[in-house]
Amino acid sequence: MWDSSFDETLRSFLPFLPAEEALTTETPLREYGLDSLATVELLAVLEQNYNVRFEDDALNLETFENPGRLWATLAELQPAS
């Protein structure tokens, strides 16, 4: 599962997700308010917070479909520790 920073960051871009509702791997991000502008902003925040760069092949609707896919993509971009 992802870290709390990812959860908090993602929630800040989902205006229609109630605070008491759990964010799951399958939560449909677009249904909860992640539009195209918010996606670009989220991308920039994630790149800065995790010190990564999303490659062109990761910049597609599927990557931002749900938290599970987005976290998996982000995890692949992070250097192995």
TrEMBL record:
Mind telling me what this protein is named? Answer: Phosphopantetheine-binding protein
Organism of origin is Amycolatopsis rhabdoformis
InterPro entries assigned: ACP-like_sf (IPR036736), PP-bd_ACP (IPR009081)
Which PROSITE patterns does its entry note?
Answer: CARRIER
Domain of life here? Bacteria
Gene3D superfamilies membership: ACP-like (1.10.1200.10)
Q: Where is the Carrier domain?
A: 1-78
